[in-house]
Write a structure and sequence with these properties.
Elements (H helix, E strand, L loop, with lengths): L11 H24 L5 H66 L5 H8 L2 H5 L10 H57 L3 H19 L11 H11 L18 H11 L8 H4 L4 E3 L10 E4 L5 E7 L2 E4 L8 E4 L5 E6 L1
Length: about 350
């Protein structure tokens, strides 16, 4: 008969030790929580601004990949059109030669050289130059044209395949940069969400104050760089208050280079899409005192931000996520040089 023993209860000493250990763990956790205070509103803002700057760097790389994708797609389409036309032309040449061969057959037999061409690899045959002597001049010309067309077509197909491979790589790069931007923005939003409602409202109030100050910016007696620069700047002014959105190039939202390229397009001037490319789109001006209204202004060592010089030490630009198109002091960012388009 099986015996049933009562489980041995822990002794009072063991219970006391366990209780003391638990209490110590709670105390340590409490101390750790006290040792890691919640970051202040200003500390969060500093981290968020840094993340927004990193997101803007990634945005300009995203814009570059997007522009390259558009260019490659056009090149691929053009090459594929060439291949299609070339194939049609080749088919027509072969049909014409086949018609000649049929006529010869009906009139007493097909020329052995044409028969060989139509029934085997033409390149292998045509590489034997002596065989051309067996054909009439018109047939020789037709066969040579077919051979040339085939070689051209093969080269075009090879180029199209290479472009398609480049396009696939660019699309992959585009996706990577897009995810990088989204990750940075999500991290920034997570930090903002860690603030109290009162702190978030305070940051929003600060941003609104900056927008109102922008509307009252004193541009002084700014001299336009040119008539077209003045027209581009005026187009930019018409978009003050429009939100910054990464990858956007108007007409209702913009990133930094999307804003400047859109504004110049309204003046009938085409400039590159990215800030780095815009940095090489005109004459560089390294002295702030020589800048004129409508000149582009490039910021940061890697040239990832661009705006318009507005006059009196002010720039008109799309600053970053969470802001709108507005005026700011040129000294708010590390100035590199101006560009006169």
């Amino acid at each position: 008969m099986a015996s049933h023993r009562r489980a041995k209860q822990p002794g009072r000493t063991r219970v006391t030790v366990l209780t003391a250990t638990a209490a110590a763990a709670v105390a340590l956790t409490s101390q750790a929580a006290q040792a890691a205070p919640q970051p202040s509103k200003n500390e969060v803002k500093e981290k968020v601004d840094k993340l927004y700057e990193e997101a803007e760097k990634a945005t300009e790389k995203y814009n570059g990949a997007k522009e390259q994708q558009t260019r490659l797609q056009k090149e691929v389409d053009a090459l594929q059109d060439k291949v299609a036309r070339g194939q049609d032309e080749l088919n027509t040449l072969r049909d014409n030669l086949g018609t000649v061969a049929s006529a010869q057959y009906r009139s007493g037999g097909m020329d052995p050289a044409i028969q060989l061409f139509l029934s085997s690899d033409p390149d292998t045959y045509l590489d034997q130059a002596s065989a051309l002597d067996q054909l009439g001049s018109k047939q020789t010309e037709a066969l040579t044209e077919i051979q040339s067309k085939q070689r051209t077509l093969a080269q075009q197909r090879k180029e199209a395949q290479a472009k398609l491979a480049d396009l696939a790589d660019t699309r992959e790069q585009l996706g990577t940069k897009k995810r990088e931007v989204q990750t940075k923005l999500a991290s920034a939003q997570k930090l903002l969400n860690s603030l109290s409602a009162k702190e978030r409202a305070s940051l929003k109030k600060d941003e609104s104050r900056a927008n109102r100050a922008s509307a009252r910016a004193d541009l002084g007696k700014a001299v336009p760089a040119s008539q077209r620069a003045a027209a581009a700047f005026a187009a930019g002014q018409s978009k003050i208050g429009s939100p910054y959105v990464y990858g956007a190039s108007g007409p209702n939202s913009f990133d930094c280079s999307g804003f400047t390229s859109w504004a110049f397009a309204q003046a009938g001037v085409g400039i590159p899409r990215t800030s780095q490319a815009q940095a090489n789109a005109g004459t560089r001006i390294y002295s702030q005192s020589q800048l004129k209204q409508g000149d582009l202004v490039i910021f940061y060592g890697d040239q990832h931000h661009v705006g318009f010089y507005a006059g009196n030490g002010q720039v008109l630009h799309a600053p970053r996520t969470g802001t709108v198109v507005r005026y700011e002091s040129i000294n708010n960012m590390p100035f590199q040089f101006g560009v006169r388009i």
